[in-house]
Amino acid sequence: MSGMRSFMHSLIVLALTSVLSGNAPAFQIETVAEGLEHPWAVAFLPDGRMLVTERAGRLRVIDADGDLVAEPVSGVPASFVRNQGGLMEVALDPDFANNGWIYLTQAHGTSSANTTRVLRGRLDGMNWIDNEVIFTASPERTRPVHYGGRIAFLDDGTLLVTLGDGFDHREQAQKLNSHIGTIVRINPDGSVPSDNPFLDHPDALPEIYSYGHRNPQGIVFDPETGLVWSHEHGPRGGDELNLIRPGENYGWPVVTLGIDYSGARITPYTSRPGMVDPLIDWTPAIAPTGMSQYRGELFEEWQGDLLVAGLVGRDIHRIRLDGEQVMDEETLRLGIDRRLRDVRVGPDGAIYILTDHSDGEVLRVTP
Questions:
Q1: Rounded distance between C-alpha atoms, residue 112 and residue 141, angstroms
Q2: pTM of the shown model
Q3: How far is 210 from 248, CA to CA, in rounded Å?
Q4: Which residues are catalytic?
């Protein structure tokens, strides 16, 4: 079995590393599935199966025995697949056991007019049925990058969706009449919650929950504290971890600790009144992507910690929290040496990581 071969190879690599460094290996890494085309997100079904999105537009199933089903789920609406665009998030409704709803985010449109949209549907065997488009970000953009696309459910059943700035449209992240560079909050059917923060603002889009974001690609709701954590890509440096509160402005592009890719300054400001400062600034950039919060039994000392995947650093960052404060950050050196797109905590307490390559993998990490 290919997964077992990769598992043994990983153990050999870790053992060799421990010999060279004089330390005992801390992790075991098993390949659950491979040959995935830029896998983007993973979700765990109650029956032991996993759902994995491929940026190329496919929704894949890993069965309860750990085998990747050869054919993708049929009937998933086509995504706009270009550059960073494609099929992105997959998330189960909190009441999935009763209603069966599954939520997807995707890039939608054309090369000259594209945006992020949210779908929901159900699985009937290997078929996607009951499809509904519940949200489409406005306005459309002209460049196929910075879609955001992550989802988190709050304890009231509403969902937050992260939306990027489209790169060429960053000034709109400061405008309340645009979804660009925002986090939005909607009901499961796409309607607007009655207590969203800008409902009484005459020029604001009612879905907006927070704004001033560049490209947020990780979001977590902690049911034990009621806090929402999100991270976002900066430009050249200036990646951020933020504590998200309704109605707040997170500064982009007026405030940033990064610089433009050309080396030019984007703004003279690293902090401004009325704009929320990040709790962590990653400079140099780690290119943070997926994020989850650890609740499980395999890594008992990690309870409540945030886990952040990095595309550039190719590591997982473990962030220790105390309420609203960041207490410490540790880089978990897993030795994978691949771009890491997503990190999730499985029902078994293991860490599941997606590698962002044309021959991407689902990896399972245990102590």
A1: 7
A2: 0.93
A3: 5
A4: 146
pLDDT by residue (tens digit) across 171-181?
999 999 999 99
Structure tokens at 171: 């000034």
Q: Taking phi first (over 0 means left), then psi (-120 to 50 degrees means alpha), and beta for anything else, what does residue 36 get?
A: beta
* Arithmetic mean of pLDDT, 36-53: 98
Q: How far is CA 265 from the centre of its chain?
A: 28
Residue with tokens 């879609």: 147
User: What per-residue confidence (pLDDT) applies to 18?
Assistant: 39
Which run of H or E residues covers position 44? Answer: strand 39-44
What residues contact residue 91 under an 8 Å CB cut-off, 6+ apart?
Answer: 41, 43, 102, 103, 151, 153, 159
* Angstrom distance (rounded) from CA 267 to CA 256: 7
Q: String of b and e for 240-279 (b: at least 16 CB within 10 Å)?
A: bbbbbeeebbbbbbbbbbbbeeeeeebeeeeeeeebbebb
Between CA 47 and CA 50, with CA 49 as vertex, the angle to 5 degrees is 135
CA neighbor of 141 nearest in space, from 215, 56, 78: 215
Torsion angle, alpha carbons of 92, 96, 99, 105, to 10 = 0
CB 288 within 8 A of CB 280: no
Residues 236/261, Cβ–Cβ less than 8 Å: yes
Side chain identity, residue 13: V
Distance CA 222, CA 225 (A): 6
Ordered strands of the 288-293 beta sheet: 288-293, 306-310, 316-322, 325-332
Q: Among all chains, which residue has been given the structure tokens 């706009």? A: 80
Residue from 140, 236, 244, 141 nearest 183 by CA: 244
pLDDT digits (tens, 9 = 90+) for 197-221: 999 999 999 999 999 999 999 999 9
What's the CA gap between 352 and 149, in Å, rounded? 19
Helix (H, G, I), strand (E, B) or coil at 273: coil
Beta bridge partners of 362: 33, 354
The sign one gets for the Cα dihedral 209, 215, 217, 220 is negative
**Main-chain dihedrals φ then ψ at residue 199, nearest 5 degrees:** -60, -30
